[in-house]
Amino acid sequence: MGLSNKELPKLGFLYMDYVLRFFDYSNFKGWPNKIETVTYHWGKDKNRFIKEVKDKKIDVLIGNIPATAYETFREIARELPNVRFIPSLDTQFSNKSKENVTRFAWKYNLPIPKTYIYYNRENADKFLQKTEYPKIVKKSYGPSNYGGYFVHKVDSYKEAKELFSTKKYHPMYFQDFVPMEADIRVMLIGHKPVCAFWRRAPEGEWLTNTSQGGSMDYIDVPKSVLDLAVRVSKAANAEYWACDVAYGKDGKVRILECATAFAAFPYIRDWIGQYIMWSLSEGRFRKPHIPMFNWEELGKISPDLLRTMRHITFGKYNASYDGSYFGKKKKMYGESEHYLHELDSAYKMFDVKERTFEEWPSEKWNYQDRFALKNIKSMKVPALKTEEAPIPSGDEASLAIEISEEQLEHLLLSVKGLTEKKLKKILDFYNHEELIHILETDPRALENVKGIKTKMVEKITAVWDEYKTK
Ligand SMILES: Nc1ncnc2c1ncn2[C@@H]1O[C@H](COP(=O)(O)OP(=O)(O)O)[C@@H](O)[C@H]1O
Ligand SMILES: [Mg+2]
Predict the structure, then answer these.
(1) Looking at 355, 388, 421, which one is the last position of a domain?
(2) Is 151 a pocket residue for ligand 1 (Cβ < 6 Å)?
(3) Is the beta carbon of 208 within 6 A of some atom in ligand 1?
(4) How far is ligand 2, taken at its centre, from the CA of residue 197, in Å?
(5) CATH number of 447's domain
(6) Domain ranges, residue 441
(7) What are the φ and ψ backbone dihedral angles of 146, each rounded to 5 degrees?
């Protein structure tokens, strides 16, 4: 079963000068063929890079693209239409800037703190005069943008004005202040949570980043947090993903950050490698089995030791074998108690597939270069008008479409060729609410579901549009 050595795609690692390497050969243990490497040297290196990928006949380029190379790599990806990037440039859209994270969340109706993005400084100033405080001001984009270093709390218009006049952040990006218990980092592979931990702020502080002296622990990450992280990973079509979720004092969950580039122990990168090998080999390599809440146990090991541990594997739950930890252990989760292995079927590892369209083309989404600070000063651009108004965040937004779960299923089954079996696959992947949202905003995301092709999506969209106009 599975592809032979010859049939396997040719892999390449995407490396960059001066950037830490997320993967190397050791994460792809057992891959029988040579894995190429292609290194981007920055500057005017685009054409040489493209040529090297072509010369090496690479089918799949694996690696993270840092913020400052993102736009160049969107161009590179266009010139290599037959190369699959893992993660895709669309998936890595959020890597570029906080603005992009926000636009991604707005599109998919994912909860985030209420966020304001202004390219027009005069309008921002008008808004800041009348809004409520405190607000959190952030630098949206820039190298080494992490750890709360470019995140500020302002308590009044005066403070906000002062900050923006000294910092010159562009765009002007700020959020409502959300009082929070902690923030939680969740890492996912194939939309399945594989690691999660709390990060709490030191006493009396509001920044929860551990780099600033907070604490972390792996115990009892709430269901609402894992569920949100799964939704976000699916929306991004991410092979692997990390999501920082704010756990509010109001009990609500909101996304703070998400990206494919994050710090992860080597054993987690091994799991990602194994997952990718499985996904690309049509079953030749074993799908990694990563039990839910493994992190509560692995988290007991000292980080120094954990950093050296490699290729951690787990046996699957087996009903006839009663010595198994992950089979016997129960856990309070959500409203009730569950066996851990039951949670494994609730949080499946999906085979993320390549998409054939561009979701976030730069012509439309690269606001930063289109509305660079110098342009705005020298021009009176009426075209800016539509970008000026802060768009309400998904935080309090609600769904306008009234349709019961039964009606929705009935409607989908009326689509020619959409069988009960296909419907089940769709509902395994997206719950009803997500499905409605996707039908409204991005039906092509249905192609994430195995067996759903572009033609089928077109038919579904037609039926959906007809339903709405009735
Ligand atoms: N809207 C907000 N309200 C309250 N605290 C926030 C808000 N946004 C961020 N923070 C705090 O600031 C920290 C850093 O913000 P984040 O957006 O993660 O930026 P960075 O890229 O610097 O990590 C978060 O971990 C959180 O503790
Ligand atoms: Mg952060």
Answers:
(1) 388
(2) yes
(3) yes
(4) 13
(5) 1.10.150
(6) 405-469
(7) -160, 170
